[in-house]
């Protein structure tokens, strides 16, 4: 195929490769010529070809795998959160909150004042900003600037975009929240996996990622998805110490579970860290359709983020902001949120205890899900459970490295199961794990 590639400059060579991809002459998985070979044929410097390949990688057209060379990217679909469509199985993989545990917005909606917001007005509703500043100050007593985005995913995407360019490296937890994987890959950033253990992101993993030149770190301080673990006090202190030598690496904390969490908030953002953001979405306790997240950050990040949320173009609807603010300050809504927190914890703990009685190891430190060890290939175990009427999400969906504990775990959303259904699931899990050849029809 190298005989078809033409060009004298890096941009010309990259453009010609893209032409071949667009025309179908190069397809996913096809290898590009070795740098030296193509440079000799085109009679250009090897650095020119290397620069062309870097342009292709940054554009998401190609991927470089060290000694394996550079090849055209295969745009594999990335699993996403939510219900699986067109299935008659009991879906345990949705990761959704219980609709019955979300506050009813109708009473608050009826009280909202009809105050139109016009172009050029402040982008943050004053009442919501006042409440959010008090709330976040309880965990971050130092100075910060407040922004409002259209949910946590929108926040992380904009925060990375204001600091990075295509090809830059981002440290992500491994295993990792599905949407974070999707956000980073579709933007053309390189992912650097940081292993997660029982206390969260590992110190050695973070140190290695920083040594590899990451320009941003995305971390879940508690209710890590999918494992449910949270940062311990000692671990958080160690991570802050590692980051102290890298104050200008952007650190994003996605505290998605916040009001529902039973774990304390422990941050890896030290008091002297220069570039940071804390993101708190309302989707888990007010509902996924209320697309809003509160972002606390340093002044520089806030300024750059603000340029992407300019008045008149990209602000978050003030109607949504007023509704969120009204619910967050309404006694009845807060009672529902508190009851939901207790419900998720109680149901998940009960499932873990029931699993242990049947020889199944499950964990539910915090969050909406349980993390079940199937002692083998999780994808194979998921297929066996499908034959019994259950749809579970295998842990390797969340894995960046494709190895480690994730490949032998299932993530399950079980808080809405009745006691009877929970018992049936645990029995099916036990038989699936201990009897690989078990074949029971749904």
UniProtKB/TrEMBL annotation:
GO molecular function: transaminase activity
Pfam families the UniProt entry points to: Aminotran_1_2, GntR
Source species, domain of life: Bacteria
Region (Disordered), start-end ranges: 72-97
Keyword Glycosyltransferase among record annotations: no
Family: In the C-terminal section; belongs to the class-I pyridoxal-phosphate-dependent aminotransferase family.
Record-linked PANTHER family: HTH-TYPE TRANSCRIPTIONAL REGULATORY PROTEIN GABR, TRANSCRIPTIONAL REGULATORY PROTEIN
The protein's name in its UniProt record: Aminotransferase class I/II-fold pyridoxal phosphate-dependent enzyme
């Amino acid at each position: 195929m190298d005989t078809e590639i033409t060009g004298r400059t890096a941009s010309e060579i990259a453009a010609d490769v893209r032409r071949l991809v667009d025309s179908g002459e190069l397809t996913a998985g096809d290898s590009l010529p070795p740098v030296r070979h193509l440079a000799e044929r085109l009679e250009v410097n090897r650095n020119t070809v290397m620069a062309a390949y870097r342009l292709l990688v940054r554009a998401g057209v190609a991927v470089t795998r060290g000694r394996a060379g550079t090849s055209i990217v295969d745009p594999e679909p990335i699993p996403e959160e939510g219900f699986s469509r067109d299935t008659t199985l009991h879906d345990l993989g949705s990761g959704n909150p219980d609709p019955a545990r979300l506050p009813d917005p109708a009473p608050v909606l009826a009280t909202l004042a009809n105050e139109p917001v016009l172009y050029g007005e402040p982008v943050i509703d004053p009442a919501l900003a006042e409440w959010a500043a008090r709330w976040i100050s309880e965990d971050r007593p130092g100075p910060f600037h407040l922004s409002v985005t259209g949910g946590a995913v929108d926040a992380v995407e904009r925060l990375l975009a204001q600091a990075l360019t295509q090809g830059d490296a981002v440290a992500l937890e491994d295993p990792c929240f599905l949407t974070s994987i999707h956000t980073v890959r579709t933007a053309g950033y390189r992912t650097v996996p940081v292993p997660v253990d029982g206390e969260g992101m590992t110190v050695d993993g973070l140190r290695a990622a920083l040594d590899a030149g990451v320009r941003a770190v995305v971390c879940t301080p508690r209710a890590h998805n999918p494992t449910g673990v949270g940062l311990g006090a000692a671990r958080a202190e160690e991570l802050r110490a590692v980051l102290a030598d890298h104050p200008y690496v952007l650190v994003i904390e996605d505290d998605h579970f916040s009001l529902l969490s039973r774990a304390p908030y422990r941050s890896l953002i030290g008091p002297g860290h220069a570039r940071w953001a804390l993101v708190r979405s309302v989707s888990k306790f007010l509902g996924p359709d209320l697309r809003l997240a509160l972002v606390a950050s340093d002044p520089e990040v806030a300024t750059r983020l603000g340029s992407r949320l300019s008045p008149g173009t990209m602000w978050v609807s003030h109607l949504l902001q007023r509704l969120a603010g009204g619910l967050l300050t309404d006694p009845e809504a807060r009672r529902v949120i508190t009851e939901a927190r207790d419900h998720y914890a109680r149901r998940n703990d009960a499932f873990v205890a029931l699993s242990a009685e049947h020889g199944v190891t499950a964990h539910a430190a915090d969050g909406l899900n349980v993390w079940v060890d199937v002692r083998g290939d999780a994808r194979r175990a998921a297929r066996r459970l499908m034959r019994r009427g259950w749809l579970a999400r295998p842990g390797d969906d969340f894995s960046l490295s494709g190895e480690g504990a994730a490949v032998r775990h299932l993530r399950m959303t079980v808080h809405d199961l009745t006691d009877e259904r929970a018992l049936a699931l645990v029995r099916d899990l036990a038989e699936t794990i201990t009897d690989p050849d078990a074949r029971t029809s749904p």
